[in-house]
Amino acid sequence: PGPPSLLTASLIPGYFLEDFVDMLCNQKLHQSWELLFHHSVVIVCFGIAVLLQQYVGFALVALLVEINSIFLHLRQILLMANLVHTTCYRLNSIVNLGTYVVFRIATLAWMTHWLFLNRENVPPATYAVGTVGMAIMTPMNIILFYRLLRSDFFK
């Protein structure tokens, strides 16, 4: 991998580690356990890619998921500001759902597909970590998608 890719991938475990520690210190475990689990998977997967300097591009594709995080976080801010019944919230809900499908579900589907197609070329330990990571992230994201649909569209 080139230096910019490796540098970018190197920053991710640190960011998620900092957020992990912040959640441990400032949130109740029953409120944050899913995100703590998510962050653990990201830290391990990106950490392996950086340490081995392999599959960095694959790891960086996972960052496409974070495009949707902009709208998930804006949703939380609008909820905290009690702006649920506004045009802004409604518009964000639609964009959030669209970016969720494109940048979360489609990205995870592509990554799972790539991993499956390249299983012969990926070392067994790396393949196992990738497969477990996808097996954790995909259901978590499907459940969150269902919760968003239920909350914002099927009240």
UniProtKB/TrEMBL annotation:
A GO BP annotation: phospholipid homeostasis
UniProt keywords, alphabetically: Membrane, Transmembrane, Transmembrane helix
The keyword Transport is annotated on this UniProt entry: no
UniProt membrane topology term: Multi-pass membrane protein
Domain annotation TLC: ranges: 1-155
Alphabetized InterPro entries for the sequence: TLC-dom, TLCD
Name of a matching Pfam family: TRAM_LAG1_CLN8
PANTHER family: CT120 PROTEIN, TLC DOMAIN-CONTAINING PROTEIN 2
Name recorded for this polypeptide: TLCD2 protein
Organism: Podilymbus podiceps (Pied-billed grebe)
